[in-house]
Amino acid sequence: MKVIGITCSINAKKVYLNRDYIRKIVSLGFFPLLITPDMLIFKEQIVNNVSALIISGGEDINPQFYGEKNVACRNIILDERVKSEIELLDAFLLTQKPVLGICYGMQLMNIFLGGSLFQNIKSSINHRKSNHEVEILADFPLKRGKFPVNSSHHQAVNRLGKGLEVFCKAEDEIVEGFYLKGHPFFVGVQWHPERDSGEASLNLWKIFVKKIQ
Fold first, then answer.
1. Are 35 and 7 in contact (CB under 8 A)?
2. What is the pLDDT of residues 75-98, one digit of tens each?
3. Which of 84, 123, 124, 190 is the one with CA 20 to 30 A from 169?
4. pLDDT over 90 for what percent of the chain?
5. Domains, the chain, ranges and CATH?
């Protein structure tokens, strides 16, 4: 059985992850492995034995990571998590194994490649808590068209990271999906496909599974 690594949120005493991630990975026929910053001493073993990596959702990344002062972030993720996931992304990028970033995970991937974020979206669309339509603009990794997705964020991609290509946007032009050009599957989405049963999410998981070797 192939192992899928999933990063998770942390505080000083606990680690936590919504069960939707575990349920989704199990339903796809894989074994989920939660990865915490404490486990990075085994980074080589993790990279060698994990078939794909998911950077899960979370709160706000400290704007210092993309060279800005904090003007709108209230719930800052511990730097320990951010730094460990950047280290994981750096290691997995060399392997060409599939990497999927979800919500915060997508934002982190963008920062990892030199991009920046809108610290607080100003839009007519309620991105914090709603469903809204996105448009798939390219045939990779998903087919073109307009699809409803869930939404649970107040930050989004601003300056795009090096090598990234946008494949999905909301009606207000907020980036909802990107991929790294030349990589088999280095994909970020702004919605939560692990708890969404729409066509875009189902197709994303199908492609993700096909890329796992």
1. yes
2. 999 999 999 999 999 999 999 999
3. 84
4. 96
5. 3-211 (3.40.50.880)
d(CA 63, CA 68): 5
Amino acid at 111: I
pLDDT of residue 130: 85
Overall residue count recorded for the chain in this entry: 213
Phi (first) and psi of residue 71, to 5 degrees: -120, -10
How many C-alpha atoms does 93 have within 13 Å on its Cβ side? 16
Q: So what's the pLDDT on residue 139?
A: 86
Does position 151 have pLDDT exceeding 90, yes or no? yes
Q: Which amino acid is at 54?
A: I
Write the DSSP string, the chain. --EEEEE-EE-SS-EE--HHHHHHHHHTT-EEEEE-GGGGGGHHHHHHH-SEEEE---SBPPGGGGT---SS--SBPPHHHHHHHHHHHHHHHHHT--EEEETHHHHHHHHHTT--EESS---SS--SSEEEEEEE-SSSSS-SEEEEEEE--S-EE-SPPTTEEEEEEETT--EEEEEETTSSSEEEESS-GGG--SHHHHHHHHHHHHH--
Average pLDDT over residues 59-66: 97
In whole angstroms, what is the distance from residue 178 CA to residue 189 CA? 7
Tokens of 119: 């610290």
Contact 167, 140 (CB under 8 A): yes
100-119: per-residue pLDDT in tens? 999 999 999 999 999 999 99
